[in-house]
Amino acid sequence: MFDLVDDVEAYPTRFPWCAAAKIVASEGSDVRIARLDLRFAGLTQSFTTRNTAERPHRLHMHLVEGPLKSLEGEFTFAPLGSEGCKIALALDFEYSGVLAGAALRLGFQGVAGRMVDDFVRAAHKVYG
């Protein structure tokens, strides 16, 4: 499951909310800078995050650039026997603009709210 979440460049083929994704830089083996173009609320918004991996238990995200004032997020993976794991996502974000803020807030909350379920569906497709 960790590898599925960490495979940022596959997001556009797996999730309708992702228009584009790429790794733009690496800072060692455990830190990568990723850019995502997310579709929501009739808009496409770009986010760049610094992703720090603690394989296979945790993936931390920190906003580098984007329409939010701040973003901190963390996926955690807890083993459930030899056949699976529990995945959780904690996100803390703050909006920067007033005019686009309402649409951005609703759209981003919608994507954030369904991300874990989307990853679980993707895991069923990829791993069976």
Architecture overview:
- The radius of gyration is 14 Å and the shape is globular.
- The relative contact order is 0.18.
- The longest helix is centred in the last third of the chain and has 27 residues, at 101-127.
- The protein has 128 residues and is α+β, with helices and mostly antiparallel strands.
- The chain is built from 3 helices and 6 strands; from the N terminus they run ααββββββα.
- Helix content is 28%, strand content 48%.
- A 6-stranded antiparallel β-sheet has the order 1-2-3-4-5-6.
- The mean pLDDT is 87.
- It has helices spanning 2-6, 11-14, 101-127, and strands at residues 18-26, 31-40, 43-54, 58-65, 68-79, 85-95.
- A hairpin with a 4-residue loop joins β1 (18-26) and β2.
Total of DSSP H or I helical runs spanning 4+ residues:
3
Adjacency order of strands in the biggest sheet: 1-2-3-4-5-6
Strand content: over 45%
Helix content: 25-40%
> What's the gyration radius in Å?
14 Å
Compute the number of strand runs.
Answer: 6
Which structural category fits the helices and strands?
Answer: alpha+beta
Distance between the termini: 12 Å
Main beta-sheet strand count, sense and barrel state: 6 strands, antiparallel
Task: State the low-pLDDT regions, or none.
Answer: none
Q: What's the overall average pLDDT, rounded?
A: 87
The coarse silhouette is globular
What's the SSE pattern?
HHEEEEEEH
